[in-house]
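Researcher: We are triaging several targets before committing to wet-lab work. For this one, the compound of interest is flavin-adenine dinucleotide. I'm pasting the protein sequence and the ligand SMILES. What I need is the predicted three-dimensional arrangement of the protein with the ligand bound, expressed as structure tokens, so it can go straight into our comparison scripts without reformatting.
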Amino acid sequence: MTFPDLTADLKAELPELKGRLAANVSLSDITWFRVGGPAQLLFSPADEADLAYFLKHAPRDLPVTVMGLGSNLLVRDGGLPGIVIRLGRGFASVGAEEGHKVRSGTAVPDVKVARAAAEAGIAGLAFYRGIPGSIGGALRMNAGAHGRETKDVLIEARAVDREGNTHTLSLAEMGFTYRHSRVPDDFILTAALFQGAPGDPAAILREMDEVADYREQNQPIRERTGGSTFKNPPGHSAWKLVDEAGCRGLRVGGAKVSDMHCNFLINEGGATAEDIERLGETVRARVKARCGVMLEWEIIRLGLPLPGRATGEALAEATVS
Ligand SMILES: Cc1cc2nc3c(=O)[nH]c(=O)nc-3n(C[C@H](O)[C@H](O)[C@H](O)COP(=O)(O)OP(=O)(O)OC[C@H]3O[C@@H](n4cnc5c(N)ncnc54)[C@H](O)[C@@H]3O)c2cc1C
């Protein structure tokens, strides 16, 4: 499946563009699940000004999607029409600032923020050690672990909107709730400022090692996965409901509910995005039938199915082993 190549038209319309533009780039090479069709156009802006220029002048009818490290995404097999923006080198600086603060671009992996904070003797950001996404994804998703969330450490974030205007968003304006922010859909987050507390570098590095060890023992972090599939419903753990509904180890095609942690779906090798979505929808239907709770996807599903194929709850009737 390929989309019409718009790169030449766009380059002609945006002569001052500095970043990289490429057509029909496979997203299965980028997402953690290692599935998904192509991005019609993949744009990697050189810096924030380049991003703003692009957004201001790109045709309005082209949908824009931003991707971080793809650790929370299921891109469907038909791919993503329009423009996918992926921030790279121009958004990858991280450093400590006076007053136990850390400033970071949003392309920086969470683990690097944890490490920069530790080395500067800044406590409170060690939980980022275990989250395999970028700071952009952490801001959008209010990523958290081990009792802390992004909302506990953020001072402010910067963003560029679809018109190319820049914004500084306070913590309150981010509107964080559980694995969610109220940042407008068209905002592309570019930088963040975090507040930590004084700490001993050696002790923080030890805490980070504990986080890493815990992950290694309790989550299938070396698999092709999207992390926690479903949000914990109020008063419940999603994994317990999945287990009670008999879904541990359940398979659809090349997709499987992890034996190690049954709120994780894994691509055992040959899975399609449809296999994974069908498995997730089947789990949701079984949990609803068994426990009366409709689980909500935490993983974000994006893009088109292959022609003639279904998406969402319509997939749940599969015969599964
Ligand atoms: C093994 C594993 C373990 C995980 N453990 C945890 C955990 O403990 N806690 C947790 O919270 N999550 C966890 N996750 C999920 C995931 O790592 C987080 O949600 C992470 O914050 C996603 O970041 P990302 O860069 O990969 O974003 P992506 O998956 O690429 O995107 C996620 C969302 O963020 C948006 N986004 C990305 N960058 C930007 C940007 N610059 N501006 C605006 N929007 C943006 C995307 O459009 C999308 O809506 C885990 C995932 C895996 C695979």
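Researcher: Any quick observations?
Model: The CA atoms of residues 127 and 145 lie 6 Å apart.
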